[in-house]
């Protein structure tokens, strides 16, 4: 049956430029190579992912120039993430309704327009509005590109294509803060949005030339024209649930979680809406998000791995610079430079991983090695102290991104392998949502546990600081031996001792967070046993494309 299907696909490809008997022409044969298409569409993805982090370091400048507080300015980030979360899972459905090429082009066009409007926004309110629209416009780029690559490349060549996509989604968030800080310091925060304009224009015109919709998208468009039914209930429940969930994750720690009526209310709305969306979509004949894809073992297991993997990756990306600045006294620029070698290793390693996968290497073994490296790196980071050098942080970070590269590329390759090709857009939307929500969960949980655990350790350590203790008396005596007023020196020594206790409590909290993240990765290893190995490709295989 497979050989018959492949032969049929080859014949269809050959006949694509031959007129039919009624004088009409079928769609033209491919003009551009899959690699040309991959390079062009990945530009848009890189640009959109870059915008998730490029504004982080510019928030004080944005808030100051628009006469807003730091907390109000933070909605510039939250609004973008909320809009992204809404559009990601439904991008596959939108592609089937309007066409993938049209959806991608419209996304790039409006992302560029709203980027320009963000740059000229005169007030914080308008800036937040334009950021919402920018996030809605750009949110579909990530899953669209992944679906395009899954369709453009045959399975045996898909590893290298997914390697290109992985470089975009891993390097862009790392580059974002550094690039945003440099632009803000040397020009203006408005230029972090203006730089999207030339990139977006180039991406739009190149995509318009090189990209074509595959046959299954054209078939879906024809079917939808005859019988278009929009699942408004599922769309509303999903949008409301994801928007409120993203706000809870982003603002929870800042507002003391369930000690805040705002967070509690939004959490209830998110829980009820998402539960209703799952039940509704599961039983709907034409759902906005096809949750039945999760019944396929590889796709379900890969989604779980991706959720936890990106939670750990974003948590460590949040914790490491904070540790370097809070505990070691680095400035933001030095901390960013110290972590930059990891991005270079990612760019060098990921293409190699993709090449190895095209040679038939078992992707499950690569995923096992990658997760093991990540777990080791997290445990290594959990062993750091206040005397570490820059290299003591650079090396484990490099080991971590090596593990991420060894994991994400094979996962992106095998998770779509056993799904119908016409479901690639829907699957890519779910994958992108899981990845982004994983990052939000990782940052929210790590920031909360970091503060809560520091308080716990401070309370434990304070129980051992007793004024009658010989150790404490010797420490105070050494600190008060300076020339001057004895009473003032005593109070100064007590303050210094308390500061040292706080510092050690914070250090213990950081160590616990890193080790906890390593444990999360170790718990993922049994899931690899549930993955099915893709069938080994023959040396000579007809390309149905």
Compile the SSE list and pairings.
Layout: H1 2-14, H2 34-50, H3 59-65, H4 70-73, H5 75-87, H6 91-98, H7 100-120, H8 124-138, H9 141-152, H10 158-186, H11 191-194, H12 196-210, H13 215-226, H14 232-251, H15 261-283, H16 297-326, H17 332-358, H18 363-381, H19 391-414, H20 424-462, H21 470-479, H22 486-522, H23 525-528
Helix pairs in contact: 2-9, 2-10, 2-12, 5-8, 5-14, 6-7, 6-13, 6-20, 7-8, 7-9, 7-12, 9-10, 9-20, 10-17, 10-19, 14-15, 14-20, 16-17, 16-19, 16-20, 16-22, 17-19, 18-19, 18-22, 20-22, 21-22
Describe this structure in words.
There is one protein chain. With about 550 residues, this protein is mainly α. It folds into 3 domains: about 30-230, MFS general substrate transporter like domains (Growth Hormone, Chain: A, Up-down Bundle), CATH 1.20.1250.20; about 230-285; about 295-540, Growth Hormone, Chain: A, CATH 1.20.1250. It is about 75% helix and about 0% strand. The chain contains 23 helices and no strands. It has helices at about 1-15, 35-50, 60-65, 70-75, 75-85, 90-100, 100-120, 125-140, 140-150, 160-185, 190-195, 195-210, 215-225, 230-250, 260-285, 295-325, 330-360, 365-380, 390-415, 425-460, 470-480, 485-520, 525-530. Helix 2 (about 35-50) runs parallel beside helix 10 (about 160-185) and helix 6 packs antiparallel against helix 20. It is globular and about 85 Å long. It starts with a helix and ends in a 17-residue tail after the last helix.
């Amino acid at each position: 049956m497979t050989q018959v299907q492949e032969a049929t696909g080859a014949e269809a490809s050959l006949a694509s430029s031959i007129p039919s008997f009624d004088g009409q022409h079928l769609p033209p044969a491919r003009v551009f190579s899959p690699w040309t298409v991959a390079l062009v569409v990945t530009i848009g993805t890189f640009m959109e992912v870059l915008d998730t982090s490029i504004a982080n370091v510019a928030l004080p400048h944005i808030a100051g120039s628009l006469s807003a507080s730091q907390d109000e300015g933070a909605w510039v980030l939250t609004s973008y993430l909320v809009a992204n979360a809404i559009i990601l899972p439904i991008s596959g459905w939108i592609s089937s309704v309007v066409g993938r090429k049209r959806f991608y082009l419209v996304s790039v066009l409006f992302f560029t327009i709203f980027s320009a409007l963000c740059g000229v926004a005169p007030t914080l309110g308008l800036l937040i509005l334009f950021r919402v629209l920018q996030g809605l416009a750009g949110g579909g780029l990530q899953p669209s590109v992944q679906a395009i690559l899954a369709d453009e490349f045959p399975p045996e060549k898909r590893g290298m294509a997914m390697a290109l996509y992985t470089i975009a989604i891993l390097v862009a968030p790392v580059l974002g803060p550094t690039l945003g800080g440099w632009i803000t310091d040397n020009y203006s925060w408005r230029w972090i949005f203006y730089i999207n304009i030339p990139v977006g224009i180039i991406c739009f015109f190149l995509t318009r030339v090189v990209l074509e919709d595959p046959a299954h998208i054209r078939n879906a468009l024809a079917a939808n024209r005859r019988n278009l039914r929009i699942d408004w209930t599922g769309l509303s429940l999903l949008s409301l649930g994801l928007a409120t969930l993203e706000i809870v994750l982003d603002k929870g720690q800042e507002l003391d979680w369930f000690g805040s009526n705002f967070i509690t209310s939004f959490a209830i709305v998110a829980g009820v809406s998402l539960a209703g969306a799952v039940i509704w979509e599961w039983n709907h004949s034409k759902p906005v998000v096809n949750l039945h894809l999760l019944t396929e073992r590889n796709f379900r297991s890969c989604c779980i791995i991706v959720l936890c993997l990106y939670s750990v990756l974003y948590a460590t990306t949040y914790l490491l610079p904070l540790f370097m600045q809070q505990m070691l006294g680095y400035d933001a620029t030095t901390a960013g430079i110290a972590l930059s070698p990891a991005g270079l290793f990612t760019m060098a390693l990921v293409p190699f991983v993709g090449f190895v996968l095209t040679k038939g290497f078992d992707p499950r073994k690569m995923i096992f090695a990658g997760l093991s490296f990540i777990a080791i790196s997290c445990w290594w980071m959990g062993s750091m102290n206040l005397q570490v050098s820059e290299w003591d942080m650079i090396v484990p970070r490099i080991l971590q991104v090596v593990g991420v590269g060894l994991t994400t590329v094979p996962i992106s390759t095998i998770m779509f392998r056993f799904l119908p090709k016409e479901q690639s857009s829907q699957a890519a939307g779910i994958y992108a949502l899981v990845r982004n929500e994983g990052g939000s969960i990782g940052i929210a949980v790590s920031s909360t546990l970091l503060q809560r655990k520091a308080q716990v350790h401070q309370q434990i350590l304070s129980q051992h600081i007793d004024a009658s203790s010989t150790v404490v008396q010797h420490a105070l005596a050494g600190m008060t031996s300076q020339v001057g007023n004895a009473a003032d020196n005593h109070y100064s020594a007590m303050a210094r001792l308390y500061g040292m206790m706080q510092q050690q409590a914070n250090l213990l909290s950081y160590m616990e967070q890193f080790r906890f993240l390593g444990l999360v990765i170790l718990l993922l290893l049994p899931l690899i046993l549930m993955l099915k190995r893709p069938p080994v490709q023959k040396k000579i295989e007809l390309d149905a494309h």
